[in-house]
Amino acid sequence: MKPASVFTPALPAPFIEWFATRGWTPRQHQLELVARAEAGESALLVAPTGAGKTLAGFLPSLLELTARKRHVPGTKRCGLHTLYISPLKALAIDVARNLKAPVEEMGLGVRIETRTGDTSASKRQRQRHDPPDMLLTTPEQIALLLASPDAEFLFGDLQRVVLDELHALVTSKRGDLLSLGLARLRALAPDMTAIGLSATVRDPDELRRWLVGSGKLASLVTAPPGAPPDLRVLDTREHLPWAGHSAVHALSEIYAAIRKANMTLVFVNTRAQAEFVFQELWRMNEDKLAIALHHGSLDAGQRRRVEEAMAAGKLKAVVCTSTLDLGIDWGDVDLVINVGAPKGSSRLMQRIGRANHRLDEPSRAILVPANRFEVLECVAAVDAAREGAQDTAQPRTGALDVLAQHILGMACAEPFAADALYNEIASAAPYAGLTWEQFEKAVDFVATGGYALRTYDRFAKIKRMPDGGWRVANGRIAQAYRMNVGTIIEADMLKVRLLRGPLPKREPGAVYTGKIGRGGRVLGEIEESFIEMLAPNDTFVFGGEILALQGIQENEALVSRTHAEAPKVPSYAGGKFPLSTYLASRVRGFLADPSSWDHLPPQVGEWLVLQAERSVLPGQRDLLVETFPRGGRFYLAAYPFEGRLAHQTLGMLLTRRMDRAGLKPLGFVANDYALAVWSLADVGRRVESGEVSLGNLFSQEMLGDDLEEWMHESALMKRTFRNCAVIAGLIERRFPGKEKTGRQVTISTDLVYDVLRRHEPDHLLLEAARQDAATGLLDIARLSDMLARIAGRIVHRDLDRVSPLAVPIMLEIGRELVYGEAQDQILAEAANDLIKEAGGAKARSIEAHDLVAS
Amino acid sequence: MQRQEASKRTTSSQADAGLGEVVLAGVAFKIDPLGALVYEDERMLIVADLHLEKGSSYAKRGVMLPPYDTGTTLARLAVLIARWSPRRVIALGDSFHDDSGPERMATSDRASLAALQAGRDWIWIAGNHDPNIPTDAGGERLPALDLGPLYLRHEPRAGMQHGEIAGHLHPIARIAGKRRRCLITDGSRAVVPAFGAYAGGLNIHDEAFHPLFPNGRKRAHVLAENQVFEVCATRCHPEELLRPIAWGMNPR
């Protein structure tokens, strides 16, 4: 590989002129990418946002196409030259728009088109016969195109694939499916090279391998990092809450910061938080600043309007969730406020990168922790960002349900030979470890469901021909495949539809089972798990207004507008990403090292001092377990710092073991930092007396039978299984001609799950579901690592009252479903009581600081 | 494990702990928690909605459900028959998911069925899924069965139908956090739970049940692991907020 600085290609005149009209000079990394491409190398470009990544990705193709047009007679119809793939529809469309401008201005005559789920059927049809030079599209469309007999024509001449936001793509099943698609593209077009565009990551080699497959590495081009960020944690004047995620104490300080800046992005962890912060900011918006809301559940049209207003500089602030993490520059954002803990240092740095897109000036960002524990997390994140440290990404093993979907797709394109397809699949990085046996199992699954009982052979969806090749059984199967691919991956979301007309009269307690009402406009989408918690007439916030749930029909939540002052039901406010292992380790480091406390806010430092007095601070690698009585119950508080998901799973399993040990556990709560279990038996005394061993309770053994038994009943596990069944193609969401189906066509995956567990525990789908559980909602892998880490390192303190460190997790217990100010009021009172208890007789001298009422 | 209190008990026969009891048109039945109605005096066993070969029916259309439903259902039926030694077994319709079900049966399942049928009367009542079961399925085919005060048919009729025992609706009671199969009755007529492993369920508050019980209070005999509990239907929750019947929630 040639060193970068040696080779600086000269750009053709039209390009140099065009750059000049914009006042830009091509950057070193952009030129280097061109050089690599001209040398026929695939390359990964790692650059912070605002470094002209996307343009860098396209330059090689534009140069080639310009040259080609001049020399080739052009009578022969060619397939695509360049594919650009982005994870978001909107991104693909925006990029196309931004790309067409220079192409037209330079008069290059290059045909650029987009293709997404929203593209009209006629346009999609035409693209198959008369493809453009460059197609900007999404992973789902690629899967569809590859699954058709046209694939060879379309992609046979492909020269380049550009993959944008690669760091975000590879971490999910979508990435798995795309990697298989890339492997097929490489088979169809062996001369093709790939360019990956990525934000800064800890281990670029993962992505370099992913890009080219077969164990080789793409070249690496790194852009310079830009000025270090101006990053701080808000040092609030207000009283720092002990628990809760609303950050309501800091909102006026946030508002003040928004007023002073040019344009601000206020990032929060969840949709519900976004709604809340948006409402509260408007309540104090005396200056009538233009503050907007943006999150993934909003209707696409609404999101567009916000995005356009941002680009046009019409907004002062946008309250948003991680849906804005990806994407191109939006106007002149010069401040990023991150409410709540950022959960990972990489995510934080990527967000900071958005403030001030001119690379040479430092980005400004403020972290606003919502409670005392979050302060620790935020300070750790700031330190990490200053060092440029990144989280460790877990490399993925390719999902088996995705593999099954892909195999069927390949059969729909053309008959396949088993060993050729196996080799092609194993060349994709996530599937490098796939065994031939697993592959055969997947093929068998696609054909007949993969059961030991062979009664379905005559109904097989793919069949082996005399020459050994596999072929799809009939056209209907190919049709059904095309309808269902790409409806796969995201967690179950329901459409939120506003009801038209008068609502049916509903008496309290009466049972109503008739038609709910006529449907009107779709307002957006909402998580199924949230809606399932609600009863009719419960109110919640969505899209900036308060709605009441009227009922659910098929895949839609039917709602009506209300005049309520405040919604009844909040959703879990802590966020969907758990605290990263890297940050967790740093936070544990803080706790263990008192000399690091002086750069914490005084309120937090005092809390930790109190904890050292009343109990103990754990060492960085220890697990602290405290036991204490309260209100007639006996509590066990543990501080693993492994994130809420792993703690939930731990709670389920630990309580089973405690039950067997005769400790009579009644319930538990978990958050990102800690777990608290309450029981009838005096756990502390039993441990002190040696009757019960904490080492046994927290043993890795729990991941054996206890886990198996719990998974049998777990609703989470059944949901995971359902997702796998849909992705793998066992259950189809849509049947040709039967979309508005009434009753009979669908079947419960819960029944299938139970039957399979009983008869075929090693079935492909169960294996796929277990793999998901390891890293997804159950985070078993993380729990397993934690249990290994703390073996022999449990520190126990039996106390006579709640400890200061336990106050936050204790506040999670029995939180009423009360929203907004009232909830904070209740929390504040409860916190005061608890901290008084924790402080005890000795702490009277610092009571005044700790118990400042809000 | 603590026994849960049922909300009401009509009788208190200690000898038959675990079994339910119901009187229809003056005839006393036992309810077996596996999901069957037993007329002891006549040594008659009634089950409904077996939906045999539902798995293969879906597989034919490209949805490869695990092919273990028929075997599982027949095994459960075998337990019942061993327990009660009936002289007569009545399958109350929708015994097969479709008329070609019998021919798709695996050889071992076919043999199991034949073994169950041997030495007793076996009656297939016609259902909407299986109006014309082929003769090689053994037993006798009837559109309905008139037994004096009792009338056995697959699909229940609207209005007052004194003595009618029917299936078809797969009644489910949602109570104590779970969805369970149940028998629903007003003392005059009854709808029997679905027996099949893949047979889904319909909440007893669904409007499909309304025309059947125009007067009087409905009672649900809810099937739990080893017991049958009798509760007022009003103690059971409607389905409203969860997916409609199409998803066929696991009755167990």
Short structural summary:
Chain A has 854 residues and is an alpha/beta fold. Chain A is 42% helix and 15% strand.
What does this structure look like?
Chain A is of the alpha/beta class and 854 residues long. Helix content of chain A is 42%, strand content 15%. In chain A, strand 10, helix 13 (300-311) and strand 11 (317-320) form a beta-alpha-beta unit. The radius of gyration of chain A is 28 Å and the shape is globular. The radius of gyration of chain B is 17 Å and the shape is globular. By secondary structure, chain B is an alpha/beta fold. Chain B is 15% helix and 27% strand. Chain B has helices at 54-60, 69-84, 101-104, 107-117; strands at 20-24, 27-32, 36-39, 44-47, 88-91, 121-125, 140-142, 145-147, 150-152, 164-166, 171-175, 178-185, 190-191, 202-203, 219-223, 228-232. In chain B, strand 1 and strand 2 form a beta hairpin. The longest helix of chain B is centred in the first third of the chain and has 16 residues, at 69-84. The interface between A and B is large, with 47 and 35 residues.
Task: Lay out the secondary structure.
The complex is a heterodimer of chains A (854) and B (252).
Chain A: H1 13-22, H2 28-38, E1 43-46, H3 53-71, E2 82-85, H4 89-105, E3 112-115, H5 121-129, E4 134-137, H6 139-146, H7 151-155, E5 160-163, H8 166-169, H9 173-188, E6 193-198, H10 204-212, E7 219-222, E8 230-233, H11 251-260, E9 264-267, H12 271-283, E10 291-294, H13 300-311, E11 317-320, E12 335-339, H14 345-352, E13 364-368, H15 372-387, H16 400-413, H17 418-426, H18 436-448, E14 462-464, E15 470-472, H19 475-484, E16 493-500, E17 518-527, H20 528-531, E18 539-542, E19 545-553, E20 556-561, H21 581-592, H22 602-614, E21 623-630, E22 633-638, H23 644-660, E23 665-670, E24 675-679, H24 683-688, H25 694-697, H26 705-713, H27 715-728, H28 749-759, H29 764-775, H30 780-790, E25 794-798, H31 807-811, H32 820-839, H33 847-850
Parallel strand pairs in A: 1-6, 1-7, 2-4, 2-5, 3-4, 5-6, 8-13, 9-11, 9-12, 10-11, 12-13, 16-20, 21-25
Antiparallel strand pairs in A: 14-15, 16-17, 18-19, 19-20, 21-22, 22-24, 23-24
Helix pairs in contact in A: 2-3, 6-9, 14-15, 15-21, 16-18, 16-19, 16-27, 23-30, 27-29
Chain B: E1 20-24, E2 27-32, E3 36-39, E4 44-47, H1 54-60, H2 69-84, E5 88-91, H3 101-104, H4 107-117, E6 121-125, E7 140-142, E8 145-147, E9 150-152, E10 164-166, E11 171-175, E12 178-185, E13 190-191, E14 202-203, E15 219-223, E16 228-232
Helix pairs in contact in B: 2-4
